[in-house]
């Protein structure tokens, strides 16, 4: 692993904390910094879990074991189906029911600070894993929350200040499923026919150790590994029977964006997005899946021959490769030979195999895909509390790092525009914005290269309640857009939305129930760690 130079920066951050905290009216972060350390006796938990983050050595590739960070779970109370182990480095799958009260004792056994976030779950601010609550080795953080999310697929991962990317990369992630009564009525494939699929890319040294090299180029683009792991395994093959399956896919990669499609041209049938099931199934030729996004697929292997197989692929696409090439060209022209070292192997654009489904057994009964799934009310401008007021999320760049609304992350900081009244529904516009940039760079004589360099896709994630997509507009022509544009689902509940170069996206998001600081950030984890993250102050 590289030597992270975060410690010094972290010290500087902590040193300025006192001053910043004092500047926030009406919110006491004296308690905030402590977070929740002792059980609330009036919180009657249905489920109790001990979750430890620790180092481990696990077999991934043939040969030496790989040193990883790993969540180890232990069920203390609740249904035995609550925890499901996966082999390898991934944390256990946490299977929750809507309405359950969950208490999680999170123990940090790592030689560095850590905190855990329940991505997609609607929980109170002290339970959300804000980096301000990071605990040191040997310390314990106590999470207590009620599961209010509808049935769907969420996940949990480290969310430590400036360490999220390397900690997730080293293994700190796991899946969360939620089930509810609406879902049960649908009789979707369950048990062995309900398959998790966590997709991640990694890079290994010759002794099978994780490699995480971050030069300038990798920082700007995000880390891309050259080995695809599915559920933590390489060359992942799943034996299946001739019937329908439910496939819960999470892109748990740091930066890689997949364009998922079936190798034999079978259309993608989506039944769920980040925030739960769709109103009705939707067919697409392929689906784009950016880091942190989830998609639930229906795939029916009926009629296939035992012995045959079909693979889930990431298909070739253009946008990033154009951006990437221009970036490399621009960098080389503008900044001299030093940049020539940037690794280009295994770019975003090529076709990659994700997992192979091997038909092993013929069975004759298979459930039918329902025409409708769950009731869902479309949010429109009529639902927005102040339809004329648009909350901006401007994606920009300065000093070789990405920003949101002109600023980088600062633990407790928020601006006036980032204040949201609680129990409101907001219209939010996410767009690319770089006023100072193009002019300055054009004068500097490297306009083209730097301009293209900013045109990387950003998966923008907002903590708290799930949102809906109001509109997606291409405001600037981008060469590769045609190769991805049929892969977006705009009809479901989302917590992460991929904003392509040249694209502007409006969303409608409720901010109900909980006050406090809630993060919004790019889920390209390298971008997040470089500060492409901000707080909303809900009050
Ligand atoms: Cu998946 Cu703020 O994170
Ligand atoms: Cu999140
Ligand atoms: Cu980004």
What's this, in brief?
This protein is of the alpha+beta class and 539 residues long.
Give the number of DSSP strands. 31
Q: What is the name of the CATH superfamily of the largest domain?
A: Cupredoxins -  blue copper proteins
* Low-pLDDT residue intervals, each spanning 5 or more residues: 1-26, 320-346, 436-450
The CATH architecture of the largest domain can be given as Sandwich
Query: Number of DSSP helices?
Result: 9
Cα-to-Cα separation, first versus last residue? 41 Å
Largest sheet strand order: 12-11-10-14-19-16-17
Radius of gyration: 22 Å
Structure in words:
The protein has 539 residues and is of the alpha+beta class. The protein has three domains: 176 residues, Immunoglobulin-like (Sandwich), CATH 2.60.40; 136 residues, Sandwich (Immunoglobulin-like), CATH 2.60.40.420; 158 residues, Immunoglobulin-like. The protein is built from nine helices and 31 strands. A hairpin with a 2-residue loop joins strand 11 and strand 12. The longest helix has 17 residues. The N terminus is likely disordered.
Topology:
Blueprint: H1 6-22, H2 29-34, E1 47-58, E2 66-77, E3 83-84, E4 93-97, E5 101-108, E6 116-119, E7 140-146, E8 152-158, H3 164-169, E9 173-179, H4 181-186, E10 194-202, H5 216-221, E11 227-230, E12 233-234, E13 237-241, E14 244-251, E15 258-262, E16 268-273, E17 276-284, E18 287-289, E19 294-300, E20 309-314, H6 319-335, E21 352-361, E22 390-398, E23 401-404, E24 419-420, E25 424-432, H7 435-444, H8 447-454, E26 458-462, E27 468-474, E28 496-499, E29 503-511, E30 516-522, H9 525-529, E31 533-538
Parallel strand pairs: 1-5, 4-9, 10-14, 13-21, 22-25, 24-31
Antiparallel strand pairs: 1-2, 3-4, 5-7, 6-8, 8-9, 10-11, 11-12, 14-19, 15-18, 15-20, 16-17, 16-19, 20-21, 22-23, 25-29, 26-28, 26-30, 27-29, 30-31
Helix pairs in contact: 6-8, 7-8
């Amino acid at each position: 692993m590289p030597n992270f130079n975060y410690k010094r920066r972290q010290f500087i951050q902590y040193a300025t904390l006192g001053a910043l905290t004092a500047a926030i009216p009406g919110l006491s972060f004296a308690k905030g910094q402590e977070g929740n350390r002792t059980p609330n006796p009036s919180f009657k938990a249905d489920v109790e879990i001990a979750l430890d983050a620790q180092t481990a050595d696990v077999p991934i590739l043939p040969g030496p074991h790989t040193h990883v960070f790993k969540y180890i779970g232990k069920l203390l109370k609740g249904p035995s189906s609550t925890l499901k182990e996966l082999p390898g480095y991934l944390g256990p799958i946490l299977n929750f029911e809507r309405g359950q009260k969950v208490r999680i004792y999170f123990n940090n056994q790592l030689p560095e600070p850590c905190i855990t976030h329940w991505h997609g779950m609607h929980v109170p601010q002290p339970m959300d894993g804000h980096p301000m609550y990071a605990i040191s080795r040997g310390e314990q953080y106590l999470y207590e929350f009620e599961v209010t999310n509808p049935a769907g697929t969420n996940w949990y991962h480290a969310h430590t200040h400036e360490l999220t990317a390397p900690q997730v990369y080293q293994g700190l992630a796991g899946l969360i499923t939620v089930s509810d009564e609406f879902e049960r009525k649908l009789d979707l494939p369950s048990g062995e026919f309900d398959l998790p699929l966590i997709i991640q890319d990694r890079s290994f040294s010759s002794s099978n150790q994780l490699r995480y090299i971050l030069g300038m180029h990798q920082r700007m683009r995000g880390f891309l590994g050259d080995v695809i792991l599915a559920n933590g395994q390489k060359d992942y093959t799943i034996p299946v029977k001739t019937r329908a399956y439910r496939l819960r896919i999470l892109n748990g990669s740091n930066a890689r964006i997949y364009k998922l499609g079936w190798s034999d041209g079978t259309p993608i049938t989506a039944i769920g997005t980040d925030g739960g099931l769709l109103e009705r199934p939707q067919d697409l030729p392929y689906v784009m899946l950016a880091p942190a996004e989830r998609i639930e697929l229906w795939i029916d292997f009926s009629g296939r021959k035992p012995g045959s197989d079909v693979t889930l692929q990431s298909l070739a696409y253009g946008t990033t490769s154009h951006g990437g090439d221009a970036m490399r060209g621009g960098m080389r022209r503008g900044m001299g030979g030093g940049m020539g070292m940037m690794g280009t192997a295994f770019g975003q654009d090529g076709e990659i195999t994700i997992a192979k489904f091997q038909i092993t057994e013929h069975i004759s009964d298979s459930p039918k895909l329902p025409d409708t799934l769950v009731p869902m009310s479309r949010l429109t401008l009529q639902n927005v509390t102040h339809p004329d007021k648009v909350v901006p999320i401007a994606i920009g760049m300065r000093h070789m790092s990405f920003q949101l609304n002109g600023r980088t992350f600062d633990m407790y900081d928020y601006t006036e525009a980032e204040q949201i009244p609680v129990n409101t529904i907001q219209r939010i516009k996410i767009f690319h914005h770089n006023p100072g940039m193009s002019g300055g760079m054009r004068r500097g004589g490297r306009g083209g290269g730097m301009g293209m360099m900013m045109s990387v896709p950003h998966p923008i994630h907002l903590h708290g309640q799930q949102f809906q997509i109001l509109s997606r507009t291409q405001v600037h022509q981008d060469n590769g857009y045609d190769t991805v544009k049929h892969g977006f689902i705009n009809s479901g509940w989302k917590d992460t939305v991929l904003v392509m170069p040249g694209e502007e996206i409006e969303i409608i998001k409720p901010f109900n129930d909980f006050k406090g600081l809630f993060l919004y950030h790019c889920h390209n984890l390298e971008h997040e760690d470089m500060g492409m993250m901000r707080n909303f102050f809900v009050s």
